[in-house]
Design a protein that fits this description.
The protein contains 6 helices and 2 strands, in the order αββααααα. The protein is an all-alpha fold and about 190 residues long.
């Protein structure tokens, strides 16, 4: 039993780490997360990445959660809350994919969403009773990361708007050339 539990923990931790790295990389690509170092660990496979800062954050959070809870049932409640919310979000995103990408008939979408939400709604209602017994931890962690991502995205949008408002016109740059005694050379120049 110890070997099976250890193997399951290793697989689960690797899945958590890989998923977190992938999510952070996508958030970086969309300008929704502060810049962190992303190390590509393979020259053959594009998706194999390592994010040292996020790895440290995961380690600290895991130690804090493990040390902070008084018993195993609270950790189970936290895990159950996280899993059920992931199931709900996955169903809602799948519904969007069915509508926007696959363009499924609306009856099929309603049947899929209805059946899935009946099952997941049952789990979710059970989890709501466990929020005060440890289930609040994933909600607090998710809220903290949501706040970080929102603030970073807001700042990125504001910076972009300022740059677009304050950008120098190409005619003005070209007009500077003769007055400064610049000589044009062949090639392409990129000016940020």
């Amino acid at each position: 039993v110890l070997l099976v539990a250890t193997a399951a923990a290793v697989v689960a931790s690797q899945a958590t780490i890989s998923a977190t790295f992938s999510i952070i990389k996508q958030a970086l690509a969309h300008g929704c997360f502060p810049r962190v170092k992303v190390v590509h660990t393979s020259k053959n496979f594009l998706g194999q990445i390592y994010v040292p800062d996020i790895n440290w954050i995961l380690m600290i959070l895991c130690i804090a959660v493990t040390a902070g809870f008084k018993n195993q049932s609270q950790i189970g409640n936290a895990y159950g809350t996280a899993v059920v919310i992931v199931m709900l979000v996955t169903t809602l995103l799948m519904t969007l994919i069915m509508i926007l990408v696959w363009r499924c008939h609306w009856i099929l979408v309603v049947i899929f969403t209805g059946l899935s939400l009946v099952v997941e709604g049952t789990y979710f209602s059970a989890v709501l009773f466990k929020v005060d017994q440890g289930g609040w931890v994933p909600l607090v962690i998710a809220a903290a990361f949501l706040l970080i991502m929102y603030v970073w995205h807001y700042g990125t949008v504001k910076r972009y708007e300022f740059e677009m408002h304050s950008k120098v016109s190409m005619a003005w740059i070209l007009g500077l050339g003769p007055s400064l005694g610049l000589v044009r050379v062949p090639g392409i120049g990129l000016v940020y």
